[in-house]
Amino acid sequence: MTAPYLAHFGLREPPFSKEIPDADLWLPASKQGVVDGLLDALAEHASVVLVGEPGVGKTCVLRALRHRIPAAGFRLTYCHNATLGRRDFYRQLCVALGISAAATAGSLFYAVSRHVEERAEERIHPVFLLDEAHLLHQDTLEHLHILLNYSWDSRALLSLVLVGLPELRDRLALRRNRSLHSRLHHRLEITPLTPDDTAEYLRLRLKRAGCDRETFASDATVLLHEATAGAMRDLDRLAAAALRETARKKRKLVERDVVARVIEADTRERDR
Predict the structure, then answer these.
(1) In degrees to the nearest 10, what's the CA dihedral of 115, 116, 118, 122?
(2) Which of 142, 249, 233 is nearest to 193 (CA)?
(3) Are residues 203 and 180 both part of a single domain?
(4) Are 182 and 236 members of one domain?
(5) Is residue 219 located within the same domain as residue 125?
(6) pLDDT tens profile 178-231
(7) Residue-wise DSSP of 40-100
(8) Claim to verify: residue 155 and residue 238 sit in the same structural domain
(9) Strand partners, 188
(10) What angle do CA 195, 196, 199 make, to 5 degrees?
(11) What is residue 240's predicted lDDT score, i.e. its pLDDT?
(12) Does residue 18 form part of some domain?
């Protein structure tokens, strides 16, 4: 069933849905720079730590990386469940890699390491993307540097990309994690949208969905930016709610008063 607000604004599809192809993702220059930094790191077969506050676009950056990285020569493996102990973490990696999961922690680690070495023989560089890495168990975090050690630590056969909230950076800086931290040569951060980014994001997402005209008043856009602090996930939610509320009022322009009411309702819901 088509939502009534889509027809009201002449939209083919929900403009702020996360169901958008990687190729159509919009990223501001600052986030494109992060993608470029990731590509540079992987071209060097280096490992990376990438941090950012909730909702600022970390997963969007990873999806853009997936779209842009050369298919020949690299193999990305994405793991998003970081709340596992060491044995189950390696079991998860085995499943993601299509390897038969062994019973013991040592056998699991050997299977993953051997998989990496086999890909090197095929001139393929594996990249393990570990999302929500700030939640990794300490025993897993302490062990990851061993996964990067091949041929007496003389060959870079694997890249790790650890992605998480800023507290990941704080954990890695602890003395007990220095062996891993010293191997993460590229340390990147995703920042929130700027006011101009927010305005461009709203315009381009609406245009992609079929509405190529001014839909959000400038002061409404400013209010959305202030309320979301440049977090794309919050912006998607509030902008969609503002469109629905404006359609109910049979207006064609999302104005500041509507956005203010949407933000107030959202705040009440979160404070329950």
Answers:
(1) 130
(2) 233
(3) no
(4) no
(5) no
(6) 999 999 999 999 999 999 999 999 999 999 999 999 999 999 999 999 999 999
(7) HHHHTT--EEEEE-TTSSHHHHHHHHHHHS-STTEEEEEE----S-HHHHHHHHHHHHTPP
(8) no
(9) 50
(10) 90
(11) 97
(12) no
Domain that holds residue 110: 29-190
Cα 37 to chain center, whole Å?
A: 15
DSSP string, 142-178: HHHHHHT--TTTT----EEEEEE-THHHHHHTSGGGH
Q: In degrees, to the nearest 5, what angle opens at C-alpha 77 toward C-alphas 72 and 80?
A: 155
Q: Are 128 and 140 in contact (CB under 8 A)?
A: no
- Burial of 30 by CB count in 10 Å (0-12 exposed, 13-18 middle, 19+ buried)? middle
Averaged pLDDT, 13-32 = 92
Does residue 271 surpass a pLDDT of 80?
A: no
Q: Which residues contact 61 (CB under 8 A, 6 or more apart)?
A: 27, 31, 34, 35, 38, 50, 190
- CA–CA gap between residue 126 and residue 38 (Å, rounded): 14
**What residues are paired with 163 via a beta bridge?**
50
Question: Within the chain, how many helices (H) and strands (E) appear?
Answer: 12, 5
H/E segment holding residue 189: strand 186-190
Type of residue numbered 42: L
Distance between CA atoms of residues 136 and 172, nearest Å: 11
CA distance 272 to 176: 39
d(CA 128, CA 167): 20
Q: Is 253 helix (H, G, I), strand (E, B) or coil?
A: coil
pTM exceeding 0.85: yes
Cα 126 to chain centroid distance, Å, stands at 19
